[in-house]
Specification:
With about 220 residues, the chain is mainly alpha-helical. The chain is elongated and about 110 Å long. Helix 1 packs antiparallel against helix 2 and helix 2 packs antiparallel against helix 3. The longest helix is centred in the first third of the chain and has 26 residues. Among the domains are: about 80 residues, Up-down Bundle (Four Helix Bundle (Hemerythrin (Met), subunit A)); about 35 residues.
Length: about 220
């Protein structure tokens, strides 16, 4: 057994263990962490199969965005495990049926085998081109217009999402300039008429201020 085969069995073993722990973990945070471990091992297996683009996309999209989002959502929701487990046996028949269907389909695929074809041989003396570079050349030459349309749609969707979620802050003291220009002095300043001078109040005698001492 060479080194490449040894690494494949190592990644596959860790992948199976992580996938098993995703299902059997009691803590949802631990389940998400095991799922991230499973995705990382699957990415390593794809790298060994010379599928660099799929491996990088799996790491960037799922590990870098989706799974981190799932982890934060699970931690912020504070799911009560005891409440969730109350309906376990009620939903167990349906879950077992779906699991059996998935196992049957995978077994049928594995038993029938895969029709492998040899990769096209490159021209003699030509430099080897990886699939990531070949996919990039194909996307930005033959499919340039669909890529640009998809990028424009995603940009519009991102701007719309930011505009829909944008709300004015209540604690902000910023003032609109147009409101300041249209303001009138009568709306901001009120003149109150008061007498120029006022008589000082008469001094109060100590006896009147404290009647108890006056009686003594």
């Amino acid at each position: 057994m060479d080194v490449k085969t040894g690494f494949f069995y190592l990644f596959a073993l860790v992948l199976l263990f992580a996938a098993f722990r995703v299902v059997t973990a009691r803590n949802p945070v631990h389940a998400v962490l095991y799922l991230m471990l499973a995705f990382s091992q699957a990415s390593a297996v794809w790298l060994m199969l010379n599928a660099e683009f799929l491996a990088i996309v799996l790491v960037l999209v799922y590990l870098g965005a989706v799974m981190v989002l799932f982890l934060f959502v699970v931690m912020m929701l504070d799911v009560h495990i005891d409440t969730v487990r109350r309906g376990f046996w009620k939903n167990f028949p349906l879950a077992a049926t779906l699991g059996g269907v998935v196992v049957f389909q995978m077994a049928a695929v594995l038993m029938s085998g895969f029709s492998l074809t040899e990769a096209p041989a490159s021209a003699p003396g030509a430099l080897p081109v990886d699939n990531g570079k070949a996919l990039g050349i194909l996307l930005y030459t033959e499919y340039l217009m669909p890529i640009q349309i998809a990028a424009a749609i995603l940009l519009v969707a991102m701007i719309a999402a930011i505009a829909l979620t944008l709300r004015t802050r209540k604690d902000s003291k910023a003032i609109d300039a147009s409101v300041q220009v249209k303001v009138r002095a009568a709306d901001r300043l009120q003149v109150v008429k008061m007498a120029a001078t006022q008589l000082a109040p008469a001094p109060v005698a100590e006896t009147e201020a404290n009647p108890a001492e006056a009686k003594k």
